[in-house]
Amino acid sequence: MGAEEIVQKLARPAIELLMNAAPVIIGVSRKCYQFYKALPIVYVQLIIGAVLCFFGGLYPALFAALQAAEHSGLSTVRRSLSVLSNEVLTIIEASKKDDKVDADGDGIPDAKQIEGRELVKRKFKLVLTKMDPEKVNAAIASIYKVWLSVLAVLTIQFARTIALALTISDFVKKMTDRLVLPIVRRATPKDYQKWCPVLIDWFTKGIGVSIAWRIQEVISAFTSACAGGLIMARALLHIVTKGNKDHEDTKMDELASFAFAAAGFYFQFYVGFDAPFPLNWILWPFEIAEVWIRWSVTNAAS
Predict the structure, then answer these.
(1) Average of pLDDT values for 269-277?
(2) How far apart are CA 47 and CA 33, in angstroms?
(3) Which pTM was predicted?
(4) Tell me: the pLDDT tens digits for 169-185?
(5) In Å, how far are 15, 102, 127, 164, 189 from 130, measured between CA atoms?
(6) 73/70 Cα distance (integer angstroms)
(7) CA pair distance 132, 144, nearest whole angstrom
């Protein structure tokens, strides 16, 4: 099946999926944010503490990036995402109206009479005419600037992890260059042998990154379980006593935090520092973000 046939078959389903899914995702995200903003601060602290306590080691790079973004312009990112989501909704509404246009008056909408490349061209032209390029450009530039500052912070924060990943990668590469590369070259057609060193390099970097970040997951799981457990304990103390008892006047919060921390670290260790089913189906965007951030941080320092 050629590229033209693939475009011909998948263009309409892909566009329809995007048009139907985008408003739902944007709507759910906005409702979640509104719910978060409406919560009393003590319940927000309880939720943050629970997330850190039980999931801090699963997504160490993601949580560190959010913490760095809080000091580097997270509000700017929120405003930029709001602008981009409004532009997306505007385009979707225009596309729905375009799907009903019957310029030739034959009783069938024009968009229903074309497929593949022609349909993509029609929708692409609609996007260009309905989008506000200055708003989109400013929003993307703002997000990118924040990301660069976050990346710089993470490179310093995870310097030891990055150094360990590169050290393991170099060590493994020396062995694979001597033992594995000659075998791979003999098994590879001559025209493709130039790719062998590159693929071996990617493979060894993957090993180094995996081992180093696994160690970082254990460290982050322990530290986040302790920090999150203390946040949970103090939030619960405030809720139970209705704010009448300060945590400085009792040791109950510290004692409770030990129990929360132990439970949080054990949970993360029990699931192998990976989100268990069915949470992995819900948290898959976090998984993708975590992997991308890890690779970005490691490659930025290499």
Answers:
(1) 87
(2) 14
(3) 0.74
(4) 888 888 888 888 888 88
(5) 16, 19, 5, 49, 50
(6) 6
(7) 18
